[in-house]
Design a protein that fits this description.
Helices cover 31% and strands 33% of the residues. The chain has 386 residues and is of the alpha+beta class. Among the domains are: 84-156, Dna Ligase, domain 1 (2-Layer Sandwich); 201-343, Nucleotidyltransferase, domain 5 (2-Layer Sandwich). The strands form five sheets. It has a five-stranded mixed sheet, sandwiched between helices. Strands 14-13-12-17-18 form a five-stranded mixed sheet, sandwiched between helices. A four-stranded antiparallel sheet has the order 7-10-8-9. The relative contact order is 0.14.
């Protein structure tokens, strides 16, 4: 029987609470949405921490009103800003050849003593990148196969304790009875890409309003992740500074930009305000936005230079999030700057296909997967075969 769940997603400028359940044909049925603008975070710090209780409380209340339900248990997505991913090789040897069981797989995943007593972090997700048996072949699913050895490359995601403590206090204040934490980047990655794509590596760039995250993943695990302070809001800020206009006007102007246009000196973008219509030189505007996108590309390349994993050059960069996906022509500029194909990806749900919902719906999908009968056999039950 379908179960209602509630998830909380921290965007860099907005907090979203979703309630929902698993629908027919493995779809997601959203019961209620609660959104509330927030000042966000950057470099591991909240801009307005004193306001967060108010903001989260209102987002939860709005979701309750829209879904006509009361939220007592909440799954909280921990942003990449407050998590770190580490990968380790693990193995279990058996005295004789045997069929691999779910208990064996769970035991392999549980070899995480290294992470259990870290003073500043809490382990929140353990996911397999791949498994190996006697012959060292890399497998997605070893269940039921026979071997004297079960090995694997395992991804561990840890959340900062200061985040968990801070959010935990807020949950107490607003009356949430129990909280579980999951990685937002992991949930988003598993949601946006199917098993076939993830088996060949995926490279995801989520551009938010203030912060952006780059993820390299394979199988069910994150191999590498980095979060940096640069997003759609910086494009708005650069326009406001260069053109000496208000942030509000710059935001409206940004939504008019088409970088793929070959604009001339006489071309303008028009923005309608209360005071009338104002015109801005399209050539200058496009140059400002293009430079900020180029800065984003340079930052992505610097991050990827720190990645110790070799992945094929032909792997495209998948772009999601609300910070850049909606600017027409931005994908092509980003592709040219990075020297690799760029594709825009969003939730695989017709009614919720906008890229800015990727993280929120990814959290919902991951939680619903864990609650299905297949998952109840163990916390680390496989996410394959959804």
């Amino acid at each position: 029987m379908a179960q209602d769940v509630a998830v909380l997603d921290f965007g860099s400028s907005k907090i979203t609470v979703l309630t929902g359940e698993r629908g027919v044909n493995n779809t997601i049925t959203v019961g209620g949405i609660g959104e509330y603008e927030d000042a966000g975070f950057s470099d591991g710090e909240w801009f307005e921490p004193d306001q967060l209780t108010y903001v989260i409380g209102h987002a939860v209340a709005n979701a309750e009103t829209n879904s006509r339900s009361t939220i007592r248990h909440l799954y909280v997505g921990v942003p990449g800003e407050f998590t770190t991913a580490m990968c380790r090789d693990a193995a279990i040897n058996f005295p004789r050849k045997k069929r691999i069981t779910e208990a064996d797989i769970d035991a392999l995943h549980a070899q995480n003593d290294e992470f259990n007593n870290m003073p500043d972090y809490t382990l929140i997700n353990v996911q397999p990148v791949y498994y190996t048996l006697d012959d060292e072949r890399r497998l997605i699913q070893p269940l039921g196969l026979s071997s004297t050895r079960l090995g694997g490359h395992i991804s561990y995601i840890l959340a900062e304790n200061k985040f968990i403590s801070f959010i935990g206090r807020i949950m107490d204040e607003i009356g949430i009875e129990s909280v579980e934490y999951v990685s937002s980047l992991l949930a988003e990655t598993l949601f946006l890409f199917d098993e076939i794509k993830r088996d060949r590596y995926v490279l995801l760039l989520d551009v938010g309003y203030i912060t952006s995250s780059i993820v390299l993943a394979r199988g069910d695990g994150i191999l590498f992740q980095r979060t940096f302070s640069l997003g759609g809001g910086h494009i708005t800020g650069d326009l406001a500074t260069a053109l000496e206009i208000s942030f509000t006007k710059a935001e409206s102007l940004k939504r008019k930009v088409v970088l793929s246009l070959n604009v001339g000196e006489q071309d303008v973008y028009e923005v309608t305000t209360r005071d009338g219509t104002e015109s801005y030189p399209a050539q200058m505007v496009n140059e400002i936005v293009t430079e900020t996108v180029a800065r984003l590309a340079r930052t992505v390349n610097k991050c990827l230079a720190q990645c110790e994993y070799d992945y094929p050059d032909y792997i495209p960069l998948s772009l999601t999030g609300g910070g850049l996906s909606y600017i027409k022509g931005a994908r092509d500029v980003l592709s040219k700057q990075l020297g690799k194909p760029v594709e825009i990806v969003g939730p695989p749900l017709p009614q919720f296909s906008r890229p800015h919902l990727s993280s929120s719906l990814g959290l919902m999908d991951m939680v619903l997967n864990q609650q299905s009968p297949v998952r109840k056999k163990g916390f680390f039950a496989r996410l394959f075969g959804r």
